[in-house]
Amino acid sequence: MEVRFDRMAIIGVGLLGGSLGKACIEKGLVKRIVGFGRTEIKLKMAVALGAVQEYSLDLKSAVKDADLVVLCTPVLSFGDLMERMKPHLKPGCILTDVGSVKGQVIKDVSAHLPDGVHFVPSHPIAGGDQTGVEHSSAGLFCNRHCIVTPVESNDPQVQERVVSLWESVDGRVTVMTPEEHDRIFSGVSHLPHVAAFALVNLIGEMKSNGVTIDTFAGQGYMDSTRIAKGDPAMWSDICLANRDEVLKGIDGLQMHLNQMRSLIENNNGAELQKEIRKAQQQRESLESKVHQPIVAIDGPVGSGKSTLAKELARRLNLRHIETGSMYRAVAYNALQKNIDIAEEDKVTDIAKALCIDFVPSDNGQRVMVKGNDVTQLLREEKISQAASLVAKYPGVRAVLTEKQREMGRTGNVVMEGRDIGTVVFPDADKKFFIDADPVLRGKRRYEELVTKDPGLDLEDVIHQVRQRDHEDRNREVAPLKQAEDAIAIDTTQLTIQDALEILVRLIQTS
Question: Which CATH code fits 181-289?
Fold first, then answer.
């Protein structure tokens, strides 16, 4: 991509600022990016993680000569920052922000905006309950909404440059008025956070026999209160900056709570069911509108599908689930319990009890079984051999298929294996079948294993790959095959980076 700006200053290099910096560096949108903040160790981390190329603890030097300044601090700090930056912003400089409130932000920034400097407010709808540059990702904005709320004085060409910036990092830009923005996001963002904060505090104060009742919380409570982990400074500022709209939302929520209370108090089951059904239908309708993608990747051993799936998930900010690790985990647990792998019924029981999770890490992901990191243990050769037998059992495959469907049910996932597009998610949004010449796949497998076993013979490994292909393609249950609507990609003459770019383009152009 062409360079859009010579020098960009990111004021507050956290999750959003760091992700924007990474995306601009990765795509070559800016020649030089400087980060500003108050804590030097965090800024050093931002440089080390590739979020910025240099940093400054001095605001004047950070914004000097910048032709783009992005405000990524809590929104009520903008006025003070602008007052301090004003004398040092060069004519023609463009300011934008990532704040969740627009009306108050525009007032605070405009009060200190020098002549010849432009402010185009924006709000990328990205992020999550994890904050800090350590959680930043170049793919954070991919396929995410980004709202731009221009002010009357904006030059159309300047506005277009800001819109183009967000589109260049793969965001989906919508332009609206600041008033409309604040009204919408008080409802879909600010009010839900306020409700979650209040609910968690209420439950945290409730006790049974001296023990707080949240000790017994299940997944429903965890799902409905996840956003209560939000940053206190940021969310306090948001609520105060959008005070009028947030208060309207609280009043409306209180009215609905009182209505539900009245129905319960009067034992009015029929009307209570109507209210619950109405909410159920609204939620199901919402899911259909904001469906997150499911990307299915299948292919034989050594085709490169695991590396591609990991890199694709990182690039598009999706969750990566390598289903082969689930079969390995079943084999590992069975061996740990001294269960004979040949006893299908007992191994199936192990699969039913399997508690596994995939946790993102700097190296892609960690595989956690009952809270223990077993990533490296699952790569041992004895586990691989046992997993090959485990994967043939219909009972085990049925159990793990359901677990895989549950893990990917809400989307936002890249799932890879040998039957994802044909069995697990036949309706996946995108399906790919990754393959390569078996001799090359054998060589790749050999290079992966020979460091641990220098006595390996290349021809033997190639033979094992061909044999594994035959077994996978001819097993009775869920054989390895390309789904009819999957896109086949042969990686024989492609580098991983080339194949990755092809996948990304195919997904983004669909």
Answer: 1.10.3660.10
For the domain bounded by 5-176, which CATH number is listed?
3.40.50.720
**Which of 455, 433, 460, 430 has the alpha carbon at shortest distance from 445?**
460
Number of H helices, E strands in the chain: 20, 19
319-411: CATH architecture: 3-Layer(aba) Sandwich (3.40)
3-state DSSP of 241-257: HCHHHHHHHHHHHHHHH
In CATH, the number for domain 291-318+413-510 is: 3.40.50.300
Domain with CATH 3.40.50.300 in the chain: 291-318+413-510, 319-411
- Each of the 510 residues of the chain gets a pLDDT tens digit; together they read 577 899 999 999 999 999 999 989 988 899 999 999 999 999 999 999 889 999 999 999 999 999 999 999 999 999 999 999 999 999 999 999 999 999 999 999 999 999 999 999 999 998 766 788 988 877 788 768 899 999 988 899 999 999 999 998 878 899 999 999 999 999 999 999 999 999 999 999 998 888 888 888 888 898 899 899 988 999 999 999 999 999 999 999 999 999 999 999 999 999 999 999 999 999 888 876 666 789 999 999 899 999 999 999 988 888 899 999 999 999 999 999 999 999 999 999 888 878 787 877 766 678 888 668 899 899 888 998 899 899 989 999 999 998 899 888 778 899 999 999 999 999 999 999 999 999 999 998 888 888 888 888 999 999 999 998 998 898 888 889 999 999 999 999 999 999 999 999 898 776
299: left (phi over 0), alpha (psi -120 to 50) or beta: left
